[in-house]
Amino acid sequence: MLHDVGIKIQYSNHHEHSFYLILNSGLEGLLQKELLMSAFIALNHRTNKKVKVEAEYMTLLCEEDKRLIDKLSLFLQIAEYLDRSMDGIVKDIDCNIKDDVVEMMVLTTTHSVFADMIISECGKKFKRVLGRGLTIKNKVIAPV
């Protein structure tokens, strides 16, 4: 939930506020670089648009760090879409990784319409970041 800490300041731009709060939090147990990367993951989880931040922060990261941030923020964005209600409806995810596509089978306790939304919002970024397309199917299972 750390990525949503900025909601306390403003919901509509909470990802930008989360960036600032995480970066300036002084969280124990993280190196400065890890703190910066965590802040960027929070910043990028909400939108596919690149948010402008001061260039000085970007110079502290190597290309490998930036690729990792892109991947983790993408996975965080998908995770939020999978259970927007935060009711814990997702019980399991099976992924079949092929050369050109990742097929996700999402097992939920109730029917959900997240698949089309995720493809619409994350499909292009998924292809750009991971070099594969994305398909998602929903299978309803009995609640445990």
UniProtKB/TrEMBL annotation:
Residues 2-102 form the Ppx/GppA phosphatase C-terminal domain. GO terms for molecular function: pyrophosphatase activity. SUPFAM superfamilies: HD-domain/PDEase-like (SSF109604). Pfam families: Ppx-GppA_III. InterPro entries: GppA/Ppx_hydrolase, Ppx_GppA_C. This is Ppx/GppA phosphatase C-terminal domain-containing protein. It comes from bioreactor metagenome. The lineage of its organism: unclassified sequences, metagenomes, ecological metagenomes.
